[in-house]
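Email to the structure team, subject: ArsR family transcriptional regulator model.

Hi all, the expression group asked for a predicted structure before they design truncation constructs. Nothing fancy, just the tokens so they can compare against earlier work. One-line instruction: predict ArsR family transcriptional regulator, return tokens.
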Amino acid sequence: MERSEAEEYARWFRCLADATRLQLLRVLAEGGEPMTVGELVEAVGVGQSSVSGHVRRLAADGFVWVERVGTATYVRINEDCLIALPAAAAAIMGGDRENDARAAVEGAGPEAAS
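Reply from the structure team: attached below.
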């Protein structure tokens, strides 16, 4: 693993080292549709200013996309992250785990490769 790749992964995992941000990503991933900050506040039970701050951090690290429409702020998950994150974890662990993660993301799963 190159140093630049390791630094990128470290930045990703630092961003994810917060329970609220993990909850927000889960809600967005499960919903599959953009959500307003108000909807995210209701979904995770945290105050609006806190959710807004976490959304800003997730957006800065590329996990979500943010769009303002009038007075509303819509947040949607960056679907590329749903694919890249398991591959990043596998790359860190080394060995065949990277191939297993890619196969799982593609729907085949590691068992199908045997």
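Residues 21 and 54 are 6 Å apart (CA to CA). The chain has a mean pLDDT of 81. Ping us if the truncation boundaries need rechecking.
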